[in-house]
Amino acid sequence: MAEWIYFIHPPREKFVATITPEEAETMSIHRDHLAALLESGTLIMAGPTFGDINTGVAVIEAEDEDAAMAIVNSDPAVTSGLMRPELRPMRVTFLRGRD
Which residues does UniProt call coiled coil (predicted)? Predict the structure, then answer.
């Protein structure tokens, strides 16, 4: 199983500080989606960055790039058009609790 990092880029700077009710609803659905990926064992970790640019970061496991892209493209923050995704292959070399 390969590891992938994906970013979701917000539509504007200071997104967290200026989020609209509709965007907040989409991000709530996005959080539920990530929770399901964690429960299924697909998601390794995820969270937002803070400051002026609020990029979301997720590390997932998938068989190949097509499978990883399918996971990214199923994210409600992406399917809604709210966030712009970016996918990159990676290797989790150091992870607390992992031998």
Answer: none
- Give the CA distances from residue 24 to residues 3, 57, 99, in Å, rounded to whole numbers and listed in that order: 28, 17, 37
Residue 57 belongs to a domain with what CATH number? 3.30.70.1060
How many domains, in total, are found in the chain? 1
Q: Which two tokens stand for residue 16?
A: 């967290």
Per the CB < 8 A criterion, the answer to whether 60 and 37 are in contact is yes
Contact yes or no for 40/90 (Cβ under 8 A)? no
Mean pLDDT of 19-43: 98
**β-pairing verdict for 2-9 and 56-62:** antiparallel
Instruction: Output the pTM of the full model.
Output: 0.92
